[in-house]
Amino acid sequence: MAEGKAAVLEIVKPGLSTTVQDLGRPGYYHLGIPLSGAMDRQALIAANLLVGNDKGDAALEAVFMGPEIRFLSDALVAVTGAELPPKVDGMEQPTWTSFPVKAGQVLSFGFLKSGARAYIAVAGGIDVPVVLGSRSTYTLGALGGHEGRALKAGDLLPTGPARPAPAGRSVPADLRRMPATPGVLRVLPGLYWHRITEAAGVRFFEDSWKVAPEADRIGYRFRGGRPLEFVPREQPFGAGSDPSNIVDSCYPYGSVQVPGGTEPIVLHRDAVSGGGYFMIGTVISADMDLIGQLQPHQTARFEAVDMAQALEARRQSGEQLKKLAEILT
């Protein structure tokens, strides 16, 4: 694709839930505005690098079902993340690989094979207005993205000027990170760990859990494990009557709250910033991308780690991204 050339995308069918996302808008969580951005940041970065974009440019995040997009201009495209087979005028294209789309052609998708969220990057990046430093969509606050909402049929999306980038570049298989089966989510215990009994803490990490249908950008709910047992105490003033209630506290990203002690909820990119449920711990940053690729009813378990292990996992994740950038730039 020639340098400086922009494209226009027409949304023919929006899919189940397709939004514009980049790497998010940090710095406003204390005001109740979440980070938002891609649920699977590494997949977004990979898609952008494949088409010659900066790693944080805006792309489309499609959940479970892909959109149908008519290209009004020539473009270079890449689809990463969930295995959601892209098709150009009905001809299947490889995932994790850049491919050209000509003006007038339609990009559509086959049935989902694995994962939950696919990332569709177009050379030049999706050029919607920047709001608080990001183009990401936060639908609860009607903020960012395209009119602050998921895409609809008839929407027109421009891209920025494209940089020269060849078609056919591919992400190596060892850098296509997806959840194992069952999924394993590493958790740093803490925060309110003292509120449960020692036996309950052991069972929490022993049990298998399943992703509940109530799993979205705000948080992923899990069910199927044994209920937690709480250390008896007199509830403090301001806390509710249930032993899982606390006086309101801040919620970090990845924190695991367990309302009623029965169904853990891992807070994700569009999470609220505080509330009155205790938190058993926090999913480490290196595993947050994996949560966004878990499907409802998929089995997962939690694994306890300490701070040194969490930091080492973060270092390894950073090394993967560095290697990806070296290969594709």
Automatic annotation (TrEMBL):
Residues 160-169 have a biased composition (Low complexity). Residues 30-321 form the Carboxyltransferase domain. Residues 155-174 are annotated as: Disordered. Keywords: ATP-binding, Hydrolase, Nucleotide-binding. SUPFAM superfamilies: Cyclophilin-like (SSF50891). Coiled coil: none annotated. It holds the Pfam family CT_A_B. This is Biotin-dependent carboxylase-like uncharacterized protein. It comes from Labrys monachus.
